[in-house]
Amino acid sequence: MTVHDKFLALGTHYGKVYLLDVQGNSTQKFDISPVKINQISLDESGEHMGVCSEDGKVQVFGLYSGEEFHETFDCPIKIIAVHPHFVRSSCKQFVTGGKKLLLFERSWMSRWKSSVLHEGEGNIRSVKWRGHLIAWANNMGVKIFDITSKQRITNVPRDDISLRPDMYPCSLCWKDNVTLIIGWGTSVKICSVKERHASEMRDLPSRYVEIVSQFETEFYISGLAPLCDQLVVLSYVKEVSEKTEREYCARPRLDIIQPLSETCEEISSDALTVRGFQENECRDYHLEYSEGESLFYIVSPRDVVVAKERDQDDHIDWLLEKKKHEEALMAAEISQKNIKRHKILDIGLAYINHLVEKGEYDIAARKCQKILGKNAALWEYEVYKFKEIGQLKAISPYLPRGDPVLKPLIYEMILHEFLESDYEGFATLIREWPGDLYNNSVIVQAVRDHLKKDSQNRTLLKTLAELYTYDKNYGNALEIYLTLRHKDVFQLIHKHNLFSSIKDKIVLLMDFDSEKAVDMLLDNEDKISITKVVEELEDRPELQHVYLHKLFKRDHHKGQRYHEKQISLYAEFDRPNLLPFLRDSIHCPLEKALEICQQRNFVEETVYLLSRMGNSRSALKMIMEELHDVDKAIEFAKEQDDGELWEDLILYSIDKPPFITGLLNNIGTHVDPILLIHRIKEGMEIPNLRDSLVKILQDYNLQVDDLFYKNLPDEQVFIYGGIRRLAEENICESCLSPILPSDAAKSFSAVVFHCRHMFHKECLPMTSMNSPVQFCNICSAKHRGPGSAMLEMKK
């Protein structure tokens, strides 16, 4: 059999040749010989046919013209090949093969002449003509002849000479004009015809052959055909029986392999079922192919099997057959422009049904989004299908909510399903679904019916509030939110401007969240006046105080009419903020405030009010008598900076030693300590007197390390009042440098004389053992009399 893109030519054992279309229907019949047809050859145009038979007959004729050549030889002719371009007048050539290879050419006078291309190496087994190259196989190997140069350019020897060439014939095929593929036994060789460089020719042919790939196969080769960069191989298979351990003929295989340089990679393999394969031999199979259609014909004695390259439709068929619906859908989406027999939607629907049958409802529902897309009718059909199997909940999250929009009944059906069994799921759908998808009044009534059975269910109440909100029934929604004390109540009020609806609900709002409520009320004074709020909170003074306190914090003047009221509110609910309020308010009636503070015995607040009203002496007296806190009294006197107050403080403290200590420690820079010291009764024991005196000196950057009296002359008398002036006369009379060092942390030692002269201790001469008394150098030099040392100070 020979294949052309347009038809098939089939020869029989009875000498007839049939032309068949690609569907296998007979279109023409030729009676060539009474015996077996050995081979048929067609040119590329499909207009000329060459036929040879077992009785030695050779015919070449035009299928659509009267052109014809007849020749009968005295031996069987096994092969024939016409020139691929036989239709051209310059290419009227063909070859025949028996025991030798003959080339027939038509001369310019329309006469045919023959020439021997090869002989002497056994029968010619196979011939393939491509372009200007003729390849043939005999018992010894494969030769290639260049018809242009009339030269044989190569000889590829047979590898396995142990195989009978008549039982295991050579398979030849041209991949292109310069690439020949040879299959013989289990060996495959890929040969490339190349041009020889001019410098290499000498007496050699202009072309040569290079074997670019050579490898062995697992089985015997019955036919070869190219498929892009791969090969299609028809293999004759022999296997060993496990029971009898004898070889037997198995089904032939059609493999696709990827040739490599020294090996190959199997891409796919199919075992073919043909009639009588158990009795067939390797020579009984042939592989023909149509390059244009990528069709492959496996010819056996009883059958012709057509194989074609799988397209995406075939791949999808296989995936669906194997229940791999997801992969089939993916393959269809990737190759949607190339598939012809399948539709993506049909594959998708089959996938959904497959998942439902397996019980994978969630996955099936999720796939609906992608597969059903915007087809509302299909969505509704699938929803009803899920309802029939009791799986409405599974599909609910994936229903379209905008484009497309399904019938309201679909959404209501699902909401009712959830309302009967899952309040939380029902609430979630109400939050997520736009309210225009379903009839809101129908769902509101359904929720109210359920609340009759469970009136305190917070989930249903909240959902009902959301439904009321969508219906713009804000009053009912607000009432539910307040009952539930839900955080969204303030957002609802702001969003829908419900301030007119909450004027009588201020107490409820304050009880729910006083801070948020007050902020909202103060931010919207133009909608709910301060007066209205204060009136509404009249029976809840603690809430009234919270509101007025925050109002005062924002603006000290807005609520001035309520400042008198706020005195009592602060006194009752927030005493820590009462004193700051009294200090910051200029509208507060002081007499009323004083009365309240005195009634409640709020000393600190009373002291402040008395001082603010100008009665500082009473305030000071209260501090001393009520608080007994000399530090606070001193601090108060410092704040007032009034000499009379200091006098009152000294008089009150003079008979109280602890108070005297406090005064000595704190008044050094405000009042001359001598005023206090002179009034101290002789013999009074004063706690920590020495430390207090040290503190006084520290106020002048001096620290007393040792204070003592010695048996000195009369003029060496210690005078307390001089201590203050000593700090001012701080120049060393010897070195004329400051007594106090520039670095206050640096230690120093100084000597002060009765004459008021001061010296650094190191600037005075050392005292002698006989006279330990030191004298002022200046006064001694002027003979003014002895000026003995009065005080030694160190720091």
From TrEMBL:
<feature type="repeat" description="CHCR">
    <location>
        <begin position="518"/>
        <end position="662"/>
    </location>
</feature>
<dbReference type="GO" id="GO:0031901">
    <property type="term" value="C:early endosome membrane"/>
</dbReference>
<feature type="domain" description="RING-type">
    <location>
        <begin position="732"/>
        <end position="780"/>
    </location>
</feature>
<dbReference type="InterPro" id="IPR057779">
    <property type="entry name" value="Znf_RING_Vps41"/>
</dbReference>
<dbReference type="GO" id="GO:0031902">
    <property type="term" value="C:late endosome membrane"/>
</dbReference>
<keyword id="KW-0967">Endosome</keyword>
<protein>
    <recommendedName>
        <fullName>Vacuolar protein sorting-associated protein 41 homolog</fullName>
    </recommendedName>
</protein>
<keyword id="KW-0479">Metal-binding</keyword>
<dbReference type="InterPro" id="IPR045111">
    <property type="entry name" value="Vps41/Vps8"/>
</dbReference>
<dbReference type="GO" id="GO:0030136">
    <property type="term" value="C:clathrin-coated vesicle"/>
</dbReference>
<dbReference type="GO" id="GO:0008270">
    <property type="term" value="F:zinc ion binding"/>
</dbReference>
<comment type="function">
    <text>Plays a role in vesicle-mediated protein trafficking to lysosomal compartments including the endocytic membrane transport pathways.</text>
</comment>
<keyword id="KW-0458">Lysosome</keyword>
<dbReference type="InterPro" id="IPR000547">
    <property type="entry name" value="Clathrin_H-chain/VPS_repeat"/>
</dbReference>
<dbReference type="GO" id="GO:0005765">
    <property type="term" value="C:lysosomal membrane"/>
</dbReference>
<dbReference type="Pfam" id="PF23555">
    <property type="entry name" value="zf-RING_Vps41"/>
</dbReference>
<dbReference type="InterPro" id="IPR011990">
    <property type="entry name" value="TPR-like_helical_dom_sf"/>
</dbReference>
<keyword id="KW-0333">Golgi apparatus</keyword>
<dbReference type="InterPro" id="IPR015943">
    <property type="entry name" value="WD40/YVTN_repeat-like_dom_sf"/>
</dbReference>
<dbReference type="GO" id="GO:0006623">
    <property type="term" value="P:protein targeting to vacuole"/>
</dbReference>
<dbReference type="GO" id="GO:0030897">
    <property type="term" value="C:HOPS complex"/>
</dbReference>
<dbReference type="InterPro" id="IPR001841">
    <property type="entry name" value="Znf_RING"/>
</dbReference>
<keyword id="KW-0968">Cytoplasmic vesicle</keyword>
<dbReference type="GO" id="GO:0016236">
    <property type="term" value="P:macroautophagy"/>
</dbReference>
<keyword id="KW-0813">Transport</keyword>
<dbReference type="InterPro" id="IPR036322">
    <property type="entry name" value="WD40_repeat_dom_sf"/>
</dbReference>
<dbReference type="GO" id="GO:0034058">
    <property type="term" value="P:endosomal vesicle fusion"/>
</dbReference>
<keyword id="KW-0862">Zinc</keyword>
<dbReference type="Pfam" id="PF23556">
    <property type="entry name" value="TPR_Vps41"/>
</dbReference>
<comment type="similarity">
    <text>Belongs to the VPS41 family.</text>
</comment>
<keyword id="KW-0653">Protein transport</keyword>
<dbReference type="GO" id="GO:0009267">
    <property type="term" value="P:cellular response to starvation"/>
</dbReference>
<dbReference type="InterPro" id="IPR057780">
    <property type="entry name" value="Beta-prop_Vps41"/>
</dbReference>
<keyword id="KW-0863">Zinc-finger</keyword>
<dbReference type="InterPro" id="IPR016902">
    <property type="entry name" value="Vps41"/>
</dbReference>
<dbReference type="GO" id="GO:0005794">
    <property type="term" value="C:Golgi apparatus"/>
</dbReference>
<dbReference type="Pfam" id="PF23411">
    <property type="entry name" value="Beta-prop_Vps41"/>
</dbReference>
